[in-house]
Write a structure and sequence with these properties.
359 residues; mainly alpha; Glycosyltransferase; 7% strand; O_gly_hydro; Glyco_hydro_76
Length: 359
């Protein structure tokens, strides 16, 4: 049986491990920090040759989770350094050509303002303006995955919908509803209730091909948007997503993995929004969402391996992590952030009085 506060302690250990192994200044510039994309840190990672913009947005989100768990001035200072590091390394402003990247940073910056008092209103405005302009009628609606591309997908539209809903204006909430309704109409499998990845369109706007890959990421962001919209209709949709995840994407309550690279973040993203569903959804599925978070976090912890500065997590939470070989997924910052996110999600439930089921 898990004892009180143990989940928070585990999240704290994960936080210290990731920060000690991955955090580096950006090119020696004072007041900056970013996560090196791999560990052990080679010269390219130390110099942030590969940036992985959206990984940094999730690193910022994790630090904000930690600050809510155990507020400290040092964490607020780190939030400021990360925000400055992202801006310095991005070179050309706050945005890039990928709408999913931009949406994730917008969500993290909005949280930094509202939850930590560290505001970047011009950055949030630039990001939201970019996302608003990304909607077209091609393929029935939705926001592009990338500028000047032919693909629209859930990974871009889901976080954009969450951001629009959290902004809270009538127009932006309407945009959030339109995004979710488009996903539901065009990219949800009627048989399983799960969201597919996305669709390609012809220049005339007609659909050329639907990408029917199923990722935990897609379910997480669609669930998160439905929870934020918080009407009876979207709560019903959220409940369906939880049921579908439980049936098709979890083994004994543990979410399946998607390997290293970008896939290392997918399970963590889903646990983040399952935790929100557990706290805010007034449906029986709220309890099931909590159980999946707890089971996944327990598997993350049980299958860790010990390396310098603390635990190292694997990409498949049901399997023991291994010390990273050259190019192995355990070396990826994304994989470590995914595990940390799952532990923070469980700690969030713990401090809100939701406890794991007795074994």
């Amino acid at each position: 049986m898990t004892t009180p506060k143990l989940l928070a302690a585990r999240a704290g250990v994960a936080e210290r491990a990731v920060e000690s192994r991955h955090l580096r200044r950006v090119w020696g510039v004072p007041g900056t920090a970013l996560g090196a994309v791999g560990w052990p840190v080679d010269w390219a990672a130390r110099l942030h040759v590969r940036f992985s913009y959206w990984w940094q947005a999730h690193l910022l989100d994790c630090v904000l989770d930690a600050q809510l768990r155990a507020p400290r001035p040092a964490r607020l200072a780190l939030v400021k350094r990360l925000v400055r590091g992202i801006r310095v390394r991005n070179l050309v402003g706050w945005t890039n050509d990928y709408y999913d990247d931009v949406a994730w940073l917008g969500l993290a910056l909005l949280r930094a303002e509202r939850e930590a008092g560290i505001g970047k209103p011009k950055a949030v405005a630039a990001i939201t303006d970019r996302l608003r302009a990304g909607w077209t009628d091609h393929g029935g609606g939705g926001i592009w995955w990338k500028r000047n591309d032919d693909f629209k997908n859930v990974p871009a539209n889901g976080p954009a919908a969450i951001l629009f809903a959290r902004l809270g204006t009538r127009a932006d909430v309407g945009r959030a509803r339109s995004v979710v309704d488009w996903i539901e109409d065009c990219l949800v499998d009627d048989e399983t209730g799960l969201a597919w990845d996305g669709l390609h369109v012809h220049p005339d706007g007609s659909v050329r091909e639907v990408e029917k890959n199923v990722y935990t990421y897609c379910q997480g962001v669609l669930l998160g948007a439905c929870v934020e919209l918080d009407s009876a209709h979207y709560r019903d949709t959220a409940a369906r997503i939880v049921d579908a995840v439980d049936k098709h994407l979890a083994t004994d309550g543990v979410l399946r993995g998607h390997g290293g690279g970008d896939g290392g973040l997918f399970g963590g993203i889903l646990t983040r929004y399952l935790a929100q569903a557990a706290l805010r959804l007034d449906r029986p599925q709220a309890a099931r969402a909590a159980d999946i978070v707890f089971s996944s976090a327990e598997a993350v912890w049980a299958n860790r391996t010990a390396v310098v500065s603390g635990p190292l997590f694997g990409p498949e939470w049901t399997k023991p992590a291994v010390r990273p070989a050259r190019g192995g997924p355990e070396r990826d910052l994304s994989v470590q952030l995914g595990g940390w996110m799952a532990l923070e999600a469980a700690a969030l439930l713990e401090r809100n009085g939701i406890t794991p089921p007795r074994s």
